[in-house]
Amino acid sequence: MAGGALKRLSKRGINAEQAAERKRACMHALLNRPWVAKEEDPDLYFAIRDHYEELRDWFMDKAGFPLIMTRTIAKLDKTPVKAHPWMGFPEFREKRDYVFFTYGLWYLEGKTELDQFLLTDIVEEIREQMLSAGLEADWRNYYERLSMARALKQLRALGVLHSVDGDEGQWAQDAERNALYECSPLARYVLRRFPRDLTGCSRLEELEDPIPYADTQDGQSMRRRHRIYRRLLLEPAVVDRHWDEEDLNYVLWQRRAIIDQLENMLGWTGRRYREGLWFFHPELTGESELFPTMSAASDLALLLASEIRKELAEGGVLYVEDNGTVRLTKADIETLLYRLQLKHKEFWSKDLREAASQELAELCMNHLAEWGLGEWEGETSFLISPVLARWSSEYANNDFDT
Q: 76-111 as b/e, with b when 16 or more CB fall inside 10 Å?
């Protein structure tokens, strides 16, 4: 049940199944959106408020995620165990985009709700603040302006910065142009809350925990439970070989409880396979992006999965490793995709039909790595995850009688 279509029904007017579905819609929204704003989605916001105590207690007990509820938004403070490239903003192209984005938040936190200011004001203050920290921002440089423009655009996309007149794109093209912005109260909620004073931290690893843990057996048990649920909630697939020994033992011994929890609270279907414990979304659509996606890269990945299965069945040079993976070189993948291109090009878009096998391989491998369905081993070998073996794809045969 999507947030926009959610009806705010009273607790007295819905049955148990409707209440469970309503709660699941809240959980999916909290996991997959930066926040739920009352102004943008009042039905979902009030549904979260109705279930607030249960949602707060479950997320804190299982994953250590604090649920923040204010008069304007509901936000789940999510902290990944492992940071992956796909967790960032896909619109950002360079590291400095994130630097400018962070300094933009610094500037906005000094403003009050509905404060208005010029684009030249924000970029000049950011430049001066960066200089005091030993960093440099040169707005005479077109590429630096372009990077700052991407940061401002992302701030607007999140709703923490509102455009009143003009936009950053015009300024990026011409430094003499200007724009007028308005501050949103949401700016202070973008960054997650840290469990300790950042000035006392010297290593990035010290920021990984979402909450403080006691240095006791109970505290470490809680950290382990939170670590496992955080990965299952935020990562597409986690196979056994990606857990350390302590976490894997917990997953194996508690798998029934984990499956029941995620099925009851999120509606996910859990299955234990030889290679790991995996969860599937029962619907074709949802708040989160699901694999396979609607992109051409997913089509290639599914076709590649089928081709690898055929190769294995025919007893060719490919074989399954003890951990369930299939090791391929980049040349192997290029060969398989070239064969698929020749076989199916009538169904492919012009870009895919004309793409070189190296381009197809890069597109496919990047997509698989993004979804946890493959990974590089060194510079020459690519490991296909056994998770991908759960899919098989062929183009439909339309030559049938109607």
A: bbbbebeeeeeeeeeebeeebbbbbbebbbebbeeb
